[in-house]
Specification:
Radius of gyration: 24 Å
Largest sheet: 9 strands, antiparallel
Helix content: 25-40%
Oligomer: single chain
Number of helices: 16
Structural class: alpha+beta
Length: about 550
C-alpha cells in the first residue's frame, strides 16, 4: 500500500509546488530545462512537429535501494501529486519512437510534466520458462547484454528501431519484429500499471496468487475475468511500470532465406508461395518480409543526396549496379538441424519450377561470418558493393537471431544533409525527416497489387520515394511499413511528406488499408471521437482519469 501523503501546505495548482513535493517525498530526479535544452532532450522528432516545451519539467524515477516496490511507490506518488495539482503527465520509456513522435507529447499546446522512465532498468528472468520481467527503461541492448552475461540462449524481441529503444515501449505500441515471437504484445503475459489516482492495477490472477514468486501470472496471458491488460496499449489510461513477456529460445540452427523475383508481375505469383510457407511451417518460419527494389536499394546505396529513386532511369541503373531484383522475400528458419534441413528441403521442392523465382538463397550466420573473414583479406577498395551488401546481410542475420543492431537506422538519414556517425544513431536529435505509413493489408493478390499501385502513385506524386516493405506476420495478414523520407531543412519537402502521408491515409482507408499505428500528430487529427470505438475509449478515460492527467491527446480524440 502506498501511504505517502500529499504535503498539506501544497494546495495550489503550481508547478513549483509539485517539484518541491516530488523532491521531498520520492526518490526521483527533477529537472527544469531551458527551452533549448527541453527541445534537444524531449522535443526533437523526425516528423517535423513542434511542442510547447518552454521551461519543461522532467521527473525521472531512479532505481531504489529497496527494490522495485520503492520505484513503483515513487511513480504512484508522482501521479497522485500530478492529479492533486491538476498538472498533466506525459510518460515515455526511452522516448525513441522514431517516425511517430519520439519523446514529444501528443497534445500540441498543453504544458505538462514529462515522466521519464528511462532509468528504470530492472530485469528478472525465469530461465527455465524463458520469461523476462522488464521495466520500461530496459532497451534491446540491455536485455541482450543481460542474456549474454548469464549465458542464456534466448532471443531479444528486436526491431529495426535499434539497440537503444525500449522493449516495453515497443510492446505497448503493439510493435512487431521478424524473430519467432513476431507480435511483441502477443508475447506479453502480464503487466503492472499505475492509474491516474495512484492506485495499482494487476491481473486477477496476480491478486489471487499468494505465493512469493507469482509465477503463474507470467505464464498465462489471458488471466481471469475480463481481459484488461490490453487497455494499457496504445492508450493513456495508465502508466505501465513493468511487464512480463515470453522470449523465444535460440534454436540450434537459424538459417535465413531469400527469394528473388525479377519482374514486377512476379509479386502476384510469389504471394501464394509466401502464404503456403507460413501456413505449413508456422513456428519454424518466422514472419516473411516482401520488399521492392527501391526499399532494398535504400539499404545499400550510401546516400541519396545526389539521386532520386523516383527517376526510373536512375532506379534501373542502381538495380543493375547492386544486383537488386524487383522483389525480394526474406525470412528465417528456426529449429534443430534435422527440422531445418527437412523444412528447407520442402520449401525448395515447392519453389522448383516456379517461374516467378529468379533465384533463391539459403544462408546461415556461420556462412555469412566465413564470407566476411574472406573479404577481410582483400584490399578495402576491392569489391566495394559486394562488401557493403555482405555487411548488411551479416547485420540482418544478427537481427534474425535476436541480436539488436543499427542495420535499419541509417535509412532515416537518407535525405539528411548530415550523414550519421558510425555508432549511436539518434534520428530525432540529428534532425532526420521520417514519417511512417503503417497500414494492414489483406494478403490477397488483388488487394496487395492495389496497395502497391496506390503507394507508388501517391508517393511519386509528392516526389517521395515509395519504399515498400510488406511483412507477412501470418498467412492471412500483411503489415506494411512505408518510410516517407524527407529533408527537414527544406520546408517544401516537409510539406510534401506530410501531404503524402495524409493522402495515403485517406485513400488507403477508402480502399481498406487501415493503419495499425499513428504518429502523435495523426492521433490529434485522424481519429473520430464520435465513432463507436473512440466514443467508448472516451467514456473509459473519463472514469479512469477524470482530470485528464495522463498523456492528454494520446490515442484519445
Amino acid at each position: 500500500m502506498d501511504n505517502n501523503p500529499i504535503p498539506a501546505h501544497k494546495k495550489q495548482t503550481d508547478y513549483q509546488a509539485m517539484i518541491e513535493a516530488v523532491s521531498l517525498c520520492t526518490q526521483a530526479q527533477v529537472h527544469c530545462y531551458m527551452p533549448e535544452q527541453a527541445h534537444a532532450f524531449y522535443g526533437a522528432n523526425t516528423i517535423a512537429v513542434e511542442r510547447e516545451l518552454a521551461g519543461a519539467f522532467v521527473v525521472k524515477p531512479v532505481l531504489g535501494s529497496e527494490g522495485e516496490q520503492t520505484e513503483v511507490s515513487n511513480i504512484r506518488h508522482i501521479i497522485r501529486l500530478a492529479n492533486h495539482y491538476k498538472i498533466p503527465l506525459y510518460t515515455i520509456s526511452t522516448g525513441q519512437n522514431w517516425g511517430y513522435g519520439s519523446s514529444a507529447p501528443a497534445a500540441a499546446t498543453l504544458r505538462c510534466f514529462i515522466l521519464d522512465l528511462s532509468l528504470l532498468k530492472r530485469i528478472e528472468l525465469n530461465v527455465e520458462l524463458g520469461i523476462a520481467r522488464l521495466q520500461p527503461g530496459v532497451t534491446q541492448q540491455d536485455l541482450r547484454d543481460y542474456l549474454d552475461s548469464t549465458n542464456v540462449e534466448l532471443m531479444v524481441p528486436v526491431t529495426g528501431a535499434g539497440p537503444t529503444c525500449s522493449i516495453v515501449g515497443n510492446a505497448l505500441e503493439r510493435g512487431y519484429g521478424i524473430t519467432p515471437h513476431a507480435d511483441h504484445f502477443g508475447a506479453v503475459t502480464s503487466l503492472t500499471a499505475v492509474l491516474s489516482d495512484g492506485s495499482l492495477y494487476q491481473s486477477a490472477i496476480a491478486s489471487l496468487d499468494t505465493t512469493a514468486q507469482g509465477v503463474v501470472d507470467t505464464t498465462y496471458k489471458w488471466g481471469l475475468g475480463p481481459y484488461l491488460d490490453g487497455l494499457f496499449t496504445q492508450s493513456n489510461l495508465g502508466v505501465v511500470t513493468n511487464l512480463s513477456l515470453k522470449l523465444a529460445h535460440l534454436p540450434a540452427v537459424v538459417e535465413s532465406f531469400y527469394l528473388f523475383c525479377a519482374k514486377e508481375t512476379d509479386l502476384e505469383l510469389v504471394l501464394p508461395i509466401v502464404r503456403q510457407v507460413l501456413k505449413e511451417f508456422s513456428g519454424i518460419v518466422g514472419s516473411i518480409n516482401i520488399m521492392d527494389s527501391r526499399r532494398m536499394l535504400s539499404m545499400m546505396v550510401p546516400s541519396a543526396d545526389e539521386l532520386s529513386l523516383c527517376v526510373e532511369t536512375t532506379l534501373e541503373r542502381l538495380k543493375q549496379q547492386y544486383r537488386v531484383s524487383q522483389w525480394t522475400c526474406m525470412g528465417s528458419l528456426y529449429g534443430n538441424a534435422k527440422v531445418v534441413k527437412a523444412v528447407k528441403k520442402e520449401i525448395k521442392r515447392q519453389l522448383k519450377g516456379k517461374a516467378c523465382i529468379e533465384r533463391s538463397l539459403f544462408i546461415s550466420a556461420k556462412a555469412v561470418l566465413l564470407a566476411s573473414k574472406l573479404f577481410a583479406y582483400l584490399p578495402a577498395n576491392v569489391l566495394t558493393n559486394p562488401r557493403r551488401q555482405l555487411a548488411t546481410l551479416q547485420k540482418s542475420t544478427q537481427i534474425m537471431r535476436g541480436v539488436p543492431n543499427e542495420v535499419a537506422l541509417p535509412l532515416a538519414y537518407w535525405r539528411n544533409r548530415t550523414q550519421p556517425a558510425s555508432e549511436g544513431l539518434n534520428p530525432a536529435k540529428d534532425n532526420c525527416g521520417l514519417l511512417w505509413y503503417a497500414p494492414l493489408v489483406p494478403i490477397t493478390q488483388e488487394k496487395v497489387r492495389e496497395f502497391v499501385s496506390m503507394v507508388r502513385s501517391i508517393c511519386l506524386k509528392h516526389n517521395i520515394e515509395p519504399l515498400i516493405t510488406m511483412t507477412a506476420l501470418q498467412h492471412d495478414c500483411i503489415d506494411s511499413t512505408v518510410p516517407l523520407l524527407f529533408d527537414r531543412s527544406d520546408s517544401t519537402a516537409v510539406k510534401a511528406a506530410k501531404a503524402c502521408l495524409d493522402e495515403l491515409f485517406t485513400t488507403g482507408c477508402q480502399l481498406g488499408f487501415v493503419p495499425y499505428r499513428l504518429n502523435i500528430e495523426q492521433q490529434n487529427t485522424r481519429l473520430d471521437p464520435q465513432s463507436p470505438h473512440w466514443s467508448l475509449v472516451s467514456k473509459i478515460k473519463h472514469v479512469m482519469d477524470p482530470h485528464n492527467i495522463l498523456a492528454p491527446g494520446r490515442y484519445n480524440p
